[in-house]
Write a structure and sequence with these properties.
This protein is an alpha/beta fold. It has two domains: 146 residues, NAD(P)-binding Rossmann-like Domain (Rossmann fold, 3-Layer(aba) Sandwich), CATH 3.40.50; 181 residues, NAD(P)-binding Rossmann-like Domain (Rossmann fold, 3-Layer(aba) Sandwich). Helix content is 36%, strand content 12%. It is built from 14 helices and twelve strands. The strands form two sheets. A seven-stranded parallel sheet has the order 8-7-6-9-10-11-12, with helices on both faces. A five-stranded parallel sheet has the order 2-1-3-4-5. Helix 1 runs parallel beside helix 13 and helix 6 crosses helix 8. This is 3-phosphoglycerate dehydrogenase. Belongs to the D-isomer specific 2-hydroxyacid dehydrogenase family.
Amino acid sequence: MNTRPRLVYERWTDPVAGDILEAGDLELVRLDLSASAEKGWAALETAHGYQVATRTDVASVADGTQWLVGQGLVDRCPQLLAVCSAGAGYDVIDVDACTRAGIAVCNNSGPGAEAVAEHALGFMLDLAKKITVSDRALRAGPLGDRLALRGSQLLGKTLGVVGLGAIGSRLVELCTPFGMEVIAFDPYVDEATARLRGARLVPLPELLAQADFVQVTCPLTSETRGLIGAEQFSAMKPSAFFITTARGPVHDEAALYEALVSGGIAGAALDVFHEEPPQPDNPLLHLDNVVATPHTAGITVEAARDIAVATATQWQDIFDGRMPPRLLNPEVWPRYCDRFHEILGVHPTARANAAAG
Protein backbone atom coordinates (compact mmCIF):
# COMPACT_ATOMS: atom_id res chain seq x y z
CA MET A 1 0.00 0.00 0.00
CA ASN A 2 1.08 3.58 -0.63
CA THR A 3 -0.18 4.63 2.81
CA ARG A 4 -0.14 2.75 6.09
CA PRO A 5 -3.79 2.25 7.12
CA ARG A 6 -4.86 4.04 10.29
CA LEU A 7 -7.56 2.41 12.43
CA VAL A 8 -9.13 4.38 15.26
CA TYR A 9 -10.94 2.52 18.03
CA GLU A 10 -12.43 3.47 21.38
CA ARG A 11 -11.90 0.07 23.01
CA TRP A 12 -12.04 -3.62 22.20
CA THR A 13 -14.43 -6.04 23.82
CA ASP A 14 -11.37 -8.17 24.59
CA PRO A 15 -7.64 -7.37 24.28
CA VAL A 16 -7.21 -10.22 21.80
CA ALA A 17 -8.45 -7.87 19.05
CA GLY A 18 -5.48 -5.59 19.62
CA ASP A 19 -3.13 -8.56 19.77
CA ILE A 20 -4.33 -9.77 16.36
CA LEU A 21 -4.24 -6.37 14.68
CA GLU A 22 -0.90 -5.31 16.10
CA ALA A 23 0.67 -8.20 14.24
CA GLY A 24 -0.25 -6.54 10.94
CA ASP A 25 0.94 -3.38 9.23
CA LEU A 26 -1.68 -1.09 10.73
CA GLU A 27 -1.48 2.07 12.79
CA LEU A 28 -3.81 1.60 15.75
CA VAL A 29 -4.96 4.79 17.47
CA ARG A 30 -7.18 4.79 20.55
CA LEU A 31 -9.93 7.39 20.78
CA ASP A 32 -9.75 8.66 24.36
CA LEU A 33 -13.24 9.90 25.25
CA SER A 34 -11.86 11.68 28.33
CA ALA A 35 -9.41 13.75 26.28
CA SER A 36 -10.18 17.02 24.51
CA ALA A 37 -12.34 17.02 21.41
CA GLU A 38 -9.39 18.46 19.47
CA LYS A 39 -7.32 15.35 20.18
CA GLY A 40 -10.21 13.11 19.18
CA TRP A 41 -10.72 14.87 15.89
CA ALA A 42 -6.99 14.90 15.22
CA ALA A 43 -7.09 11.10 15.31
CA LEU A 44 -10.30 10.65 13.35
CA GLU A 45 -9.80 13.22 10.61
CA THR A 46 -6.91 11.16 9.23
CA ALA A 47 -8.41 7.75 9.95
CA HIS A 48 -9.08 5.15 7.27
CA GLY A 49 -11.11 2.92 9.59
CA TYR A 50 -13.14 3.57 12.71
CA GLN A 51 -14.33 0.98 15.22
CA VAL A 52 -17.26 3.03 16.46
CA ALA A 53 -17.74 3.77 20.15
CA THR A 54 -21.01 2.50 21.58
CA ARG A 55 -23.86 4.79 22.56
CA THR A 56 -23.37 3.79 26.19
CA ASP A 57 -19.65 4.65 26.00
CA VAL A 58 -20.26 8.17 24.73
CA ALA A 59 -23.17 8.88 27.08
CA SER A 60 -20.77 9.58 29.94
CA VAL A 61 -18.90 12.43 28.22
CA ALA A 62 -19.92 15.90 27.13
CA ASP A 63 -20.94 16.09 23.46
CA GLY A 64 -20.30 12.36 23.29
CA THR A 65 -22.65 11.80 20.37
CA GLN A 66 -20.16 13.56 18.07
CA TRP A 67 -18.15 10.31 18.19
CA LEU A 68 -21.02 8.34 16.71
CA VAL A 69 -20.98 8.14 12.93
CA GLY A 70 -23.42 10.79 11.78
CA GLN A 71 -23.27 13.22 8.89
CA GLY A 72 -21.05 15.57 10.88
CA LEU A 73 -18.35 12.95 11.47
CA VAL A 74 -18.53 11.76 7.87
CA ASP A 75 -18.01 15.33 6.63
CA ARG A 76 -14.97 15.83 8.88
CA CYS A 77 -13.24 12.56 7.95
CA PRO A 78 -12.47 12.60 4.20
CA GLN A 79 -10.05 9.65 4.40
CA LEU A 80 -12.54 7.35 6.13
CA LEU A 81 -13.12 4.15 4.18
CA ALA A 82 -14.93 1.84 6.62
CA VAL A 83 -16.72 1.95 9.96
CA CYS A 84 -17.73 -0.99 12.11
CA SER A 85 -19.99 -1.35 15.13
CA ALA A 86 -18.97 -3.47 18.09
CA GLY A 87 -21.89 -5.89 17.98
CA ALA A 88 -24.88 -6.78 15.87
CA GLY A 89 -26.57 -3.42 16.42
CA TYR A 90 -25.48 -0.58 14.15
CA ASP A 91 -27.79 2.26 15.18
CA VAL A 92 -24.66 4.24 16.14
CA ILE A 93 -23.94 4.61 12.41
CA ASP A 94 -25.84 6.65 9.82
CA VAL A 95 -25.69 4.06 7.06
CA ASP A 96 -27.19 6.35 4.42
CA ALA A 97 -24.66 9.12 5.11
CA CYS A 98 -21.83 6.59 4.86
CA THR A 99 -23.14 5.11 1.65
CA ARG A 100 -23.39 8.55 0.04
CA ALA A 101 -19.77 9.19 1.03
CA GLY A 102 -18.51 5.83 -0.25
CA ILE A 103 -17.84 4.42 3.23
CA ALA A 104 -18.37 0.72 3.95
CA VAL A 105 -20.47 -0.07 7.03
CA CYS A 106 -20.07 -3.34 8.92
CA ASN A 107 -21.40 -4.85 12.12
CA ASN A 108 -20.43 -7.93 14.11
CA SER A 109 -23.60 -9.99 14.02
CA GLY A 110 -23.25 -13.61 14.99
CA PRO A 111 -20.50 -13.89 17.63
CA GLY A 112 -22.65 -12.51 20.46
CA ALA A 113 -25.87 -14.28 19.51
CA GLU A 114 -25.49 -17.09 22.03
CA ALA A 115 -25.02 -14.71 24.96
CA VAL A 116 -28.03 -12.58 24.05
CA ALA A 117 -30.27 -15.56 23.31
CA GLU A 118 -29.42 -17.16 26.65
CA HIS A 119 -30.14 -13.86 28.40
CA ALA A 120 -33.51 -13.67 26.65
CA LEU A 121 -34.35 -17.20 27.76
CA GLY A 122 -33.29 -16.26 31.29
CA PHE A 123 -35.70 -13.34 31.18
CA MET A 124 -38.52 -15.68 30.15
CA LEU A 125 -37.84 -18.05 33.03
CA ASP A 126 -37.46 -15.18 35.49
CA LEU A 127 -40.81 -13.64 34.55
CA ALA A 128 -42.70 -16.93 34.35
CA LYS A 129 -41.33 -18.31 37.61
CA LYS A 130 -41.34 -14.90 39.36
CA ILE A 131 -37.74 -15.40 40.42
CA THR A 132 -36.82 -11.74 40.86
CA VAL A 133 -40.21 -10.92 42.36
CA SER A 134 -39.78 -13.73 44.88
CA ASP A 135 -36.24 -12.64 45.70
CA ARG A 136 -37.41 -9.10 46.40
CA ALA A 137 -40.26 -10.35 48.59
CA LEU A 138 -38.01 -12.70 50.55
CA ARG A 139 -35.44 -10.00 51.24
CA ALA A 140 -38.08 -7.44 52.23
CA GLY A 141 -39.74 -9.84 54.71
CA PRO A 142 -41.82 -10.96 56.42
CA LEU A 143 -42.72 -13.21 53.52
CA GLY A 144 -46.39 -13.83 54.13
CA ASP A 145 -48.30 -16.21 51.84
CA ARG A 146 -45.82 -17.74 49.42
CA LEU A 147 -48.68 -18.92 47.20
CA ALA A 148 -49.05 -15.30 46.17
CA LEU A 149 -45.75 -15.80 44.34
CA ARG A 150 -47.13 -18.60 42.20
CA GLY A 151 -45.66 -18.49 38.73
CA SER A 152 -46.22 -20.33 35.47
CA GLN A 153 -44.29 -22.67 33.19
CA LEU A 154 -42.91 -22.32 29.68
CA LEU A 155 -44.11 -25.75 28.64
CA GLY A 156 -46.72 -25.45 25.90
CA LYS A 157 -46.75 -21.67 25.84
CA THR A 158 -46.52 -19.56 22.68
CA LEU A 159 -43.33 -17.63 21.97
CA GLY A 160 -43.53 -14.69 19.58
CA VAL A 161 -40.18 -13.56 18.19
CA VAL A 162 -39.87 -10.16 16.52
CA GLY A 163 -36.77 -10.50 14.39
CA LEU A 164 -35.66 -13.98 13.32
CA GLY A 165 -31.97 -13.27 12.81
CA ALA A 166 -29.04 -14.91 14.57
CA ILE A 167 -30.29 -14.08 18.07
CA GLY A 168 -33.94 -14.85 17.44
CA SER A 169 -33.12 -18.12 15.69
CA ARG A 170 -30.85 -19.28 18.51
CA LEU A 171 -33.52 -18.39 21.06
CA VAL A 172 -35.96 -20.61 19.20
CA GLU A 173 -33.47 -23.48 19.45
CA LEU A 174 -33.00 -22.91 23.17
CA CYS A 175 -36.76 -23.04 23.73
CA THR A 176 -37.18 -26.37 21.91
CA PRO A 177 -37.11 -28.51 25.10
CA PHE A 178 -40.08 -26.55 26.46
CA GLY A 179 -42.36 -27.66 23.64
CA MET A 180 -43.39 -24.11 22.87
CA GLU A 181 -45.28 -23.04 19.78
CA VAL A 182 -43.06 -20.48 18.06
CA ILE A 183 -44.39 -17.74 15.82
CA ALA A 184 -42.27 -14.98 14.32
CA PHE A 185 -42.54 -11.66 12.56
CA ASP A 186 -39.70 -10.74 10.22
CA PRO A 187 -40.37 -9.22 6.79
CA TYR A 188 -36.86 -10.14 5.65
CA VAL A 189 -37.24 -13.89 6.24
CA ASP A 190 -39.28 -16.13 3.94
CA GLU A 191 -41.60 -18.87 5.13
CA ALA A 192 -39.29 -21.73 4.16
CA THR A 193 -36.37 -20.20 6.08
CA ALA A 194 -38.58 -19.54 9.10
CA ARG A 195 -39.70 -23.18 9.13
CA LEU A 196 -36.08 -24.33 9.02
CA ARG A 197 -35.44 -22.12 12.04
CA GLY A 198 -38.37 -23.67 13.91
CA ALA A 199 -40.89 -20.85 13.60
CA ARG A 200 -44.08 -20.02 11.72
CA LEU A 201 -44.24 -16.57 10.15
CA VAL A 202 -47.25 -14.43 11.05
CA PRO A 203 -48.12 -10.74 10.75
CA LEU A 204 -47.17 -8.63 13.77
CA PRO A 205 -50.78 -8.11 14.97
CA GLU A 206 -51.34 -11.89 15.00
CA LEU A 207 -48.11 -12.47 16.90
CA LEU A 208 -49.03 -9.92 19.54
CA ALA A 209 -52.50 -11.36 20.01
CA GLN A 210 -51.32 -14.97 20.37
CA ALA A 211 -47.96 -14.87 22.15
CA ASP A 212 -47.50 -15.52 25.83
CA PHE A 213 -43.98 -14.09 25.51
CA VAL A 214 -43.20 -11.35 23.00
CA GLN A 215 -39.44 -11.32 22.43
CA VAL A 216 -37.97 -8.38 20.48
CA THR A 217 -34.61 -9.24 18.92
CA CYS A 218 -34.58 -7.03 15.81
CA PRO A 219 -32.05 -4.27 15.05
CA LEU A 220 -32.95 -0.60 15.40
CA THR A 221 -33.57 0.86 11.94
CA SER A 222 -35.87 3.47 10.46
CA GLU A 223 -38.39 0.64 9.99
CA THR A 224 -38.27 -0.68 13.53
CA ARG A 225 -38.06 2.60 15.47
CA GLY A 226 -41.32 2.86 17.43
CA LEU A 227 -42.48 -0.53 16.14
CA ILE A 228 -44.05 -1.47 19.48
CA GLY A 229 -46.28 1.28 20.86
CA ALA A 230 -49.59 1.74 22.63
CA GLU A 231 -51.57 -0.01 19.89
CA GLN A 232 -49.27 -3.01 19.95
CA PHE A 233 -49.24 -3.33 23.75
CA SER A 234 -53.04 -3.13 23.82
CA ALA A 235 -53.16 -6.04 21.37
CA MET A 236 -51.25 -8.33 23.75
CA LYS A 237 -52.91 -10.69 26.20
CA PRO A 238 -53.17 -9.47 29.82
CA SER A 239 -51.22 -12.57 30.84
CA ALA A 240 -48.43 -11.96 28.32
CA PHE A 241 -44.89 -10.75 28.96
CA PHE A 242 -42.89 -8.27 26.88
CA ILE A 243 -39.13 -8.89 26.62
CA THR A 244 -36.54 -6.96 24.67
CA THR A 245 -32.83 -7.40 24.06
CA ALA A 246 -32.93 -5.20 20.95
CA ARG A 247 -32.64 -1.42 21.30
CA GLY A 248 -34.75 0.87 23.48
CA PRO A 249 -36.31 3.03 20.74
CA VAL A 250 -37.90 -0.03 19.12
CA HIS A 251 -40.60 0.26 21.79
CA ASP A 252 -42.41 3.21 23.36
CA GLU A 253 -41.40 3.38 27.03
CA ALA A 254 -44.38 5.50 28.11
CA ALA A 255 -46.80 3.12 26.40
CA LEU A 256 -45.08 0.15 28.01
CA TYR A 257 -45.37 1.76 31.44
CA GLU A 258 -49.07 2.35 30.93
CA ALA A 259 -49.62 -1.26 29.80
CA LEU A 260 -47.82 -2.53 32.90
CA VAL A 261 -49.57 -0.37 35.49
CA SER A 262 -53.00 -0.84 33.94
CA GLY A 263 -52.74 -4.62 33.80
CA GLY A 264 -52.74 -4.62 30.02
CA ILE A 265 -49.79 -7.02 30.14
CA ALA A 266 -48.41 -9.12 32.99
CA GLY A 267 -44.81 -7.97 33.05
CA ALA A 268 -41.70 -7.00 31.15
CA ALA A 269 -37.99 -7.75 31.05
CA LEU A 270 -35.75 -5.04 29.62
CA ASP A 271 -32.09 -5.07 28.72
CA VAL A 272 -32.31 -1.81 26.75
CA PHE A 273 -33.70 1.67 27.33
CA HIS A 274 -34.13 4.91 25.40
CA GLU A 275 -31.48 6.48 27.62
CA GLU A 276 -28.57 4.30 28.61
CA PRO A 277 -27.81 3.82 31.31
CA PRO A 278 -31.35 4.68 32.43
CA GLN A 279 -31.76 7.26 35.17
CA PRO A 280 -32.65 5.86 38.61
CA ASP A 281 -35.97 7.72 38.44
CA ASN A 282 -37.05 5.95 35.25
CA PRO A 283 -40.62 4.87 36.13
CA LEU A 284 -40.13 1.40 34.67
CA LEU A 285 -37.44 0.64 37.24
CA HIS A 286 -39.92 1.17 40.07
CA LEU A 287 -42.47 -1.43 38.96
CA ASP A 288 -42.55 -4.82 40.66
CA ASN A 289 -43.48 -6.55 37.42
CA VAL A 290 -40.37 -5.34 35.60
CA VAL A 291 -36.99 -7.09 35.51
CA ALA A 292 -34.15 -5.02 34.09
CA THR A 293 -30.47 -5.30 33.22
CA PRO A 294 -28.16 -2.49 31.97
CA HIS A 295 -27.63 -3.63 28.36
CA THR A 296 -25.56 -6.60 29.49
CA ALA A 297 -27.27 -9.38 27.52
CA GLY A 298 -24.35 -9.75 25.17
CA ILE A 299 -21.63 -9.28 27.78
CA THR A 300 -20.09 -12.62 28.64
CA VAL A 301 -16.45 -13.65 28.77
CA GLU A 302 -16.96 -15.93 25.77
CA ALA A 303 -18.95 -13.44 23.70
CA ALA A 304 -16.50 -10.62 24.38
CA ARG A 305 -13.62 -12.70 23.06
CA ASP A 306 -15.56 -14.05 20.07
CA ILE A 307 -16.67 -10.55 19.09
CA ALA A 308 -13.13 -9.24 19.46
CA VAL A 309 -11.73 -11.95 17.21
CA ALA A 310 -14.46 -11.36 14.62
CA THR A 311 -13.84 -7.61 14.83
CA ALA A 312 -10.11 -7.98 14.27
CA THR A 313 -10.39 -10.46 11.42
CA GLN A 314 -12.95 -8.27 9.68
CA TRP A 315 -10.59 -5.30 9.86
CA GLN A 316 -7.85 -7.54 8.49
CA ASP A 317 -10.12 -8.38 5.57
CA ILE A 318 -10.88 -4.72 4.97
CA PHE A 319 -7.27 -3.56 4.90
CA ASP A 320 -6.12 -6.63 2.99
CA GLY A 321 -8.43 -5.44 0.21
CA ARG A 322 -11.14 -8.07 0.62
CA MET A 323 -14.87 -7.59 0.95
CA PRO A 324 -15.74 -7.69 4.66
CA PRO A 325 -17.97 -10.62 5.63
CA ARG A 326 -20.58 -8.48 7.40
CA LEU A 327 -20.96 -5.60 4.96
CA LEU A 328 -24.29 -3.84 5.62
CA ASN A 329 -24.35 -1.54 2.57
CA PRO A 330 -23.17 -3.70 -0.36
CA GLU A 331 -24.37 -1.06 -2.82
CA VAL A 332 -21.41 1.07 -1.75
CA TRP A 333 -18.89 -1.44 -3.06
CA PRO A 334 -18.01 0.10 -6.49
CA ARG A 335 -17.44 3.59 -5.09
CA TYR A 336 -15.73 2.21 -1.99
CA CYS A 337 -13.27 0.31 -4.19
CA ASP A 338 -12.45 3.46 -6.16
CA ARG A 339 -11.87 5.45 -2.95
CA PHE A 340 -9.80 2.61 -1.44
CA HIS A 341 -7.56 2.61 -4.52
CA GLU A 342 -7.29 6.38 -4.54
CA ILE A 343 -6.41 6.63 -0.83
CA LEU A 344 -4.42 3.45 -0.14
CA GLY A 345 -3.20 2.55 -3.63
CA VAL A 346 -4.80 -0.92 -3.78
CA HIS A 347 -7.99 -1.99 -5.53
CA PRO A 348 -10.09 -4.34 -3.35
CA THR A 349 -11.51 -7.63 -4.55
CA ALA A 350 -15.02 -8.91 -3.95
CA ARG A 351 -13.54 -12.18 -2.69
CA ALA A 352 -14.33 -12.47 1.01
CA ASN A 353 -12.09 -14.34 3.41
CA ALA A 354 -13.78 -17.73 3.73
CA ALA A 355 -12.25 -18.26 7.15
CA ALA A 356 -13.83 -15.13 8.61
CA GLY A 357 -16.95 -15.81 10.67
